[in-house]
Structures are given as structure tokens and as C-alpha cells.
Amino acid sequence: MNVQEYMIELGENARAAARLVAKADTRLKNQALLAMADAIDSSRPELHAANAIDLDNGRNNGLDSAMLDRLELTDARIDTMIEGLRQVATLPDPVGAINDLKYLPSGIQVGKMRVPLGVIGIIYESRPNVTVEAASLCLKSGNATILRGGSEAINSNQAVARCIKQGLKVAGLPENAVQVVETTDREAVGQMITMPEYVDVIVPRGGKGLIERVSRDAKVAVIKHLDGICHVYIDDQADAGKAVNVALNAKTHRYGTCNTMETLLVHSDIAPELLSELSERYQAAGVELRGCERTRALLPLINKATEADWETEYLAPILSIKLVDSMDEAIAHINRYGSHHTDSIITENYTKSRAFLREVDSSSVMVNASTRFADGFEYGLGAEIGISTDKIHARGPVGLNGLTSEKYVVLGDGHIRQ
Amino acid sequence: MNVQEYMIELGENARAAARLVAKADTRLKNQALLAMADAIDSSRPELHAANAIDLDNGRNNGLDSAMLDRLELTDARIDTMIEGLRQVATLPDPVGAINDLKYLPSGIQVGKMRVPLGVIGIIYESRPNVTVEAASLCLKSGNATILRGGSEAINSNQAVARCIKQGLKVAGLPENAVQVVETTDREAVGQMITMPEYVDVIVPRGGKGLIERVSRDAKVAVIKHLDGICHVYIDDQADAGKAVNVALNAKTHRYGTCNTMETLLVHSDIAPELLSELSERYQAAGVELRGCERTRALLPLINKATEADWETEYLAPILSIKLVDSMDEAIAHINRYGSHHTDSIITENYTKSRAFLREVDSSSVMVNASTRFADGFEYGLGAEIGISTDKIHARGPVGLNGLTSEKYVVLGDGHIRQ
């Protein structure tokens, strides 16, 4: 069997399993999730053994230390996987929820029922814990999943997959509800993203190269985010204390996350008051500053920001700073150079807060809050499969609802159309 | 300027206009819609003159009478266009609506704000009234539109476009918020569906060939429905009166619409009681019946249904009938042969009504109601841009909300992430 035939077989299996998990009781799905957690807990030796093979291979293949770190399944990470499964079991089941059911003039009653999307393909890189996160969210939302992890994690992912299948079996759910691709052939990805008859949505989780490739070639919908070029704009009517706190938190809380601020916009009237304190505190935290000319007039020792800086997601302790003369100029900069991910204004002005919320075209728009809050857990979704910077289907952090669709339900008493 | 350059120019114009209409007041959008209605009303001579050219050309080019009929702009159709515009002006503005705003444990307040998608491309065939319908719904939902009508309606569409631009001008909105493609070159469509930097969503309205081509080649999201293979299933616990009324209405109310029933499924226990009456009434209405073998045992004079009948959208006074021995068999038939559009069960049984609603995988699922109700107006959406049989983004009749997306808004008081 070649790769194409193999993927089609997985697709057929997934399609058949999807029909069964779509109508599975909440109780059975939760039972499966808890049984997966138990299976992972009791399979620690097997998980460590499989992971050790991947780590050995990784070292022999010259993976860098960051990759090896992401690949490692420590006991703490296994604990997190177990906790995540138990957490997803406690989330409300989105499937079958009926909203907005109302009577209409014809006498029929019309509402919307939340239903699974069907089969979700997940493509990800080294971290084996994604296998559990993605499988659990897809199962809870009534979808079947085909998971394609990185070749460097193949043994770890297969070991995790055995625990997942064990959990499905305990609950009497079809084991094909979650399938982990067993080949490391790269053609498997190409096949998976071009078989709309078997896969309804693709969620790529990984580097920009992977996401660009998947988006370009996919023949099915893709829930993705490419860049996180996030901004904080400090308005001339900002509270100075809030401005400094938020601007520091948005940059320094974590450097490698997509909701970290990459460019700070400061109103020119408030800049003289704030920039020297901010600069000291950023430099104390080890953040390299790069400023526009007017910023450098106030902070002569920092580096110069070029046009390229406004378009760069550093994912590193680097921050570009630009002075603007109005909120409108800030919004124009954000809408032009940002990645429509997350942007925040710091202001005490009511009218400007409303205008900023409305006019900034990003998946999360904030007032007086750190961009670091853009996250499924912080938003109360319980968990997230990813963050979407697209506008179609789901935007921002994607939780269980983002893995479902709504169909119309119509209730009548023999009603006919006149 | 070649076609590609021309379409890119329209795209750039649309993108610039989209930013302005996205933040336009409800009042201005409504003013534009009402002014468009007035402009159409006072431009009847120009509309008739332009339409006469298209009709002449159509006759000379051998268009069939159905096409010529769809192309004709009668005064009654102009009245309907005017009424439609005034109706859209009365609909609530979806843009900026904030839902589910709630406090979270961190202290931030998180909600979702409805925002326009951006630029919507509409590709349609002969009916010039689509120009007005599509433009008005896209404008009200804060989107810019590029409209590509059929070449046979080019003069009518341009005349309508002048009225639309007049209305935009009266309200001080950018005239490029609605652009009608002026070339009849087919390459314009190819270009429009492959420029994601300028167009966010494509809505094809027309025959299956058009929709298949657009879906296959598009590089942006497509809101579409392909087929309407709709079913009514008469359960053994159906009320006979309701069953006959709904089954007749679903087939005979209109033959050419996508929500018309094409296959009737009847439980074998109730078939002897109902089929002869139904058969008489269908035949009185001029409907040709095609039955499975067991149906023909009860109605020996009707034609035989082949496998192909179960997969056919007749759009004509033809109905296929199949006997089944259980609701599960009916659901399996619907999910296999249907087009996931609209399907209805007739039953008095509570448990079966719930199971049917949950298990049938269609954009509208009904109990004791005619499939003909699947329609944006009947569902209280006010209007519809089309019906989606996809699961991604919008499913079923697509109204103003389907032309928007939701972004997250976060309100804080200087909150930072711990």
C-alpha cells in the first residue's frame, strides 16, 4: 500500500468513526477522556521508553537543543497531559446545544443546533503533548481526528496514541475516532490536505513554513494563524502606571509566544514622560529596543528601527518603538503592519476606547489589558486548539465551539409553506 | 490594462472602500440603501433601455426562453428590487454588536464583537436583481463588494450599478464600496477568485457548473451550495393528514427551488395507508413518480426508480419514492444520498423526532414541516445571500450575520497576566 492509499484508508476509517462520535453521549465521551488519562498515567514506563528512542534519534540526527527540549516527555509534562484530559472532560459538551429557538410568523419554530464538523486533520511538529490536546478537544466536540505529528516524535506519538485508543475502547467508542499517521513520509501531509471527501478541516500547528505550505496547498478549510505581530498603543490620555505595567507585561512575560507585543506605539505627547522609565525597565529585563527617529531623539542610545522592524515577529527580547501623533495614526499603523492577531490601547478616554475596539481589525482588540491575555484559557474557553487570525469560521482563540458548526432545526405541527 | 490588472485595480479600490464602510454608521448605510431605492425608482426608463439591449443581444445569441425570462427587468421586478432595498434598510445592523461580554477570574472582561468580513466577491448569472440583493446585504453588513454578473446581463447590471453608486454618493459613502465588473472576459472570474489579498469571500450564485468551477479553483473561502437533494421521511408514527400535506407542499409548491423535496421516504408500515392517496394527488398535480420495487408493488403503474434517481436533483415535477423499514434506514439513506441541504421527518413520536434532528447531517433538519421553509426570509433572517451546504463558517440560509465574523474584545483596568 502506498502513502496515498494508506491516507485514503485512514480517511475512510475517520469518516465512519465520525458518524459514531457525532452522536455519542456526553457521558461516553467523558468516560473515554478519563480512561485516556488513566492509561497515560499507568503507561509512564512505555511513554518514557518510546520517548527515549525519539530523543536518541534526535541527538543522532543533530536536532538542536530547543527541538530536543520540546520533544522530551518529562513526568511533569505527562502530568500536564493527564490534567488536560481531565479538564476537557469537565467542559460542557457543545454538541447538540440548541440556541435562539423561536417562533416565526408562519408558525414554525426555528433554532440552531451545534454539530461537529466531521473529520479534523491536525498537522504539528515536535511536541508529543499536542497529540493528547488535539485528540481530546476533537473528541469532546464530536469529531474524528487524523493526527500527523513530526517524524522526530513518531515513537512518542505512537505510544501516546495507544493510550488514547485504550481510552476509546474502555468507553466503547470507535478506536478510529483518533488515528495517528504511522508513516513519516512527507507525502502523507500532501495527501491529507487534499482529500475533502475525508477531511473537513485542517489545523496546522507549527512554524510559519509549515503553515504557509498547508494554507497554499490545502483543498479544505484551514484554521490557522501565521504571525503574531501584536501592538500596544499608549494614548496621550493613558494612565501612566497602567501604561508601564501593561507595556512591560506584554513584552516580557514570555518572549516566544504569538500574543507577545512586538511593537510599542506611543503618543508623542506622553512619550517624554514615559519613555525613559520604560527604557530603563526594558533594559533591566534584557530587552533590546529599536526606535523610530523621534523615539531616538528621546532615547539616543537605542538602536534604529527600520521598515522591516514593523513587519517582524521577533519572538525574542527585542522591541520596536514608534511615536505617533494620534490614535488614528496608531490604528493605521496596526492595520497596515500588524498581523491581525492582538492589539491593545492604553487610555482613560471613553470615546477613544470605543473607536479603537471598533476600528482595529484584529482577532483580539483590548483596552487597558496586556496582549498576553489572548489565549483560550484566559478567555474562559477551557482550552484551545489554536488561534485563528483568519476571519472565516473562527477568529481568535479556537475552543470547542470552533470545532463545531451550527445547523438549523425547524419544528412544526404539519406546517406547509403558503 | 489587461484583465488581471483591471481586477487588481478593482481589488485595491474595494480594499480601501472596505475600511470606510466597515466603520460607517448604521444611519449612513441605511441612507444609502434608501437612496439606491429612490435612484432605481427614478431610473426606470434607463433600466428598461439597458435591459432591452441585453434582451436583444440575448435573442440574437440564441438564449433560450428561460434565460431570457430571468434576464428581463419588468416593472414588477424593479418594484421588488426597490422593496428589497427598503427591507434591508429596516434590518438590524449586525456590525459592532457585542455578545457574551463577561468577567473572567483574572478580572478582564471578554466578549465578541461582530465585524465585517471585508471584501466579498459575488459571481452570478443572468438575473440582474441579484446585483441589488447582493450589494445591499454586503453594504448593510459593512463589507465592500465586487459583483461579476453574467455577460448576457452586462448592460442591465451597469445601469443598476449606476443607481447603486448614486445611493452611495448621496450618503457620502465611497462609491467603490460596490463595484460591478465591466468586462465580460471570463478571465475576470479566474482572477477574482485567486486574489486573497483583495477578496475575502466568494459567493457564487448560479448553476452547478459555475459553483463547481469556483470551488475547485478558488484560493479564498467560498460560501456555496451545490445541490438541493431534499427528503421528507414519513415515519410509521406519522399523522396521516400532516404527512400528506407536507409531502405535497414540499414537492409541488415550487419545482425549481433548491429546498424542494426530490425523494420521499415512507415507512413500510404506513405506506399501504398513504401511498394511493399521495399518488393520486401527485398525479393530479402533474408530478411523475418513480418508485423502488416495494413502492411499485403498491403503485404498479409508476415508473421504476434507479440508483441514479436517489442522487438526482430533478428541479422538475418528478419525485422518487422509496420504502424503508425504520427511521435509521431513512437517516442512512439521507446521509448517503442527500446533499446535506434540508430534510424533514413526519412523526408524532417524541424520541424519534429528537434522534432525527440530531442525526441527520444537513444544513436544515425539520420535524413536521415542509422543506420549502428552508429560506432566509422564512427563518427570520430578513434576507439571504444564499444557502450554504458547507459546514465551515456558515451553514444553511446565510443572512447578514453570515457576512460577518466575530473578533474578541477585552476590557481591563491595566490588567497584566501573572
Describe, in plain words, how this protein is organized in 3D:
Chains A, B: GO terms for molecular function: glutamate-5-semialdehyde dehydrogenase activity. Chains A, B: This is Gamma-glutamyl phosphate reductase. The structure is a homodimer of 418-residue chains. With 418 residues, chain A is α/β, with parallel strands linked by helices. Chain A has 2 domains: 3-223 and 397-410, Aldehyde Dehydrogenase, Chain A, domain 1 (3-Layer(aba) Sandwich), CATH 3.40.605; 230-373, Aldehyde Dehydrogenase, Chain A, domain 2 (3-Layer(aba) Sandwich). Helices cover 43% and strands 21% of the residues of chain A. Chain A has a 7-stranded parallel β-sheet, with helices on both faces. In chain A, helix 9 (208-217) links the parallel strand 6 (201-205) and strand 7 (221-222). The longest helix of chain A has 20 residues, at 3-22. The mean pLDDT of chain A is 95. At the A-B interface, strand 2, helix 10, helix 15, strand 14 and strand 17 of A face strand 2, helix 10, helix 15, strand 14 and strand 17 of B.
Question: Short description, anyone?
Answer:
Chain A is α/β, with parallel strands linked by helices and 418 residues long. In chain A, 43% of the residues lie in helices and 21% in strands.
